[in-house]
Write a structure and sequence with these properties.
Length: about 325
């Protein structure tokens, strides 16, 4: 399916990837020109209208693409990995990229943001919109300076660091999970906003699916970072009650994990290039849902592709081997 940005873009549908256009054109030709009805061209055109690709222009989710800092001398060195991951993301020609946070190591540093600009250049040059959530590294340094750097790159964040976008029939709700950097008023405001927004999207007949994204995961088996009680207690209950919600994305854990909780997928995709972390079942509590992905540590660098497969929402996860630099599909599943 050819995704169209309902909120942020007004670009016309690409002819060959638009099933409706092909369908109506074929009906017109079949009605007005009897000879066409008997022609091979007519048959091909009608077939294309019915079986047009459903995975063109997907939505990409990627997280934790920050480069190493000299302060991380004791951690894995991944020189060039963020650029390779984001270069591959650009090759997917997505309608947009959702960044799960931690675009830079030090949010207050202009130098670090220039590194991000360089690594994300293949995406930016194609004018592919990038919609981020705020990661903890975006707040590092003097908060006012760090936030200003984020606003310069993403001006719409200055209005609010929690927001939503409707892309074709899918709504994506972006949350700020940095509860330690938010005031009590901001935390309460975001909770209230999320509840009312989810209710509005439930009643919006043009929205068929809802995805939520934030940086800190409500579920993770990471041996380095924990799960967010702020997100787990205040947002997950509303999310799982919604009939339209299908996936909850996060990062922070530099790995890939896939949990199912109360029938909903919770996906951790923080493998965009930061030093990888090990995951260990039960490390963050025995009440965790089971990670359905069972690869050994450290898991591959990764990003996720959201698309419609045979009319159903689906996820395909692409991994990159550090040793060979080669990409391969490491996981895939339907969301309904």
């Amino acid at each position: 399916m050819y995704y169209k940005l309902a909120v942020t873009q007004n670009a016309a549908y690409d002819f060959i990837n638009c099933p409706l256009l092909l369908f109506f054109l074929s009906l017109l030709l079949f009605h007005e020109f009897p000879l066409i009805r008997k022609s091979i061209f007519g048959l091909i055109l009608f077939t294309l209208s019915c079986f047009a690709q459903t995975f063109e222009n997907p939505i990409i989710f990627v997280g934790d693409t920050q480069r190493n800092s000299f302060l991380e001398f004791y951690l894995e060195k991944n020189e060039g990995v963020p650029a390779k991951i984001l270069g591959k993301v650009a090759e997917e020609n997505p309608c947009c990229v959702v960044h799960n946070g931690d675009m830079v190591f030090w949010g207050a540093s202009k130098t670090r943001w220039k590194e991000y600009d360089s690594d994300a250049a293949p995406v930016i040059k194609k004018n592919i919109p990038i919609y981020p959530v705020m990661g903890n590294h975006e707040y590092m340094g003097r908060n006012t300076t760090a936030l200003q750097n984020s606003y310069e790159h993403f001006p719409f964040l200055q209005k609010s660091t929690w927001y939503y976008k409707i892309i074709d029939s899918t709504a994506i709700v972006f949350l700020n999970s940095n509860d330690g950097d938010l005031t009590s008023e901001q935390k309460h405001e975001q909770i209230t906003w999320f509840t009312s927004t989810m209710s509005a999207l439930e009643n919006n007949t043009s929205v068929l699916y809802i995805i939520t994204a934030c940086h800190h995961p409500p579920f993770t088996n990471s041996t380095l970072v924990g799960r967010s009680s702020y997100i787990l207690n205040n947002f997950v209950p509303v999310f799982v009650k919604s009939a339209k919600t299908i996936a909850f994305f996060s990062g922070h854990c530099h790995s890939y994990e896939h949990f199912v909780y109360k029938g909903k997928s919770f996906i951790v995709s923080g493998g965009g290039g930061g030093p990888r972390q090990n995951v260990e079942p039960g490390h963050n509590g025995n009440d965790m849902p089971t990670d359905l992905y069972t690869a050994e540590n450290p898991r591959m660098f990764n990003y996720c592709k959201y698309y419609l497969h045979n009319g159903k929402p689906a996820i395909q996860v692409t991994g990159m081997s550090k040793e060979t630099g080669k990409f391969s599909i490491i996981d895939s599943f339907d969301l309904r």
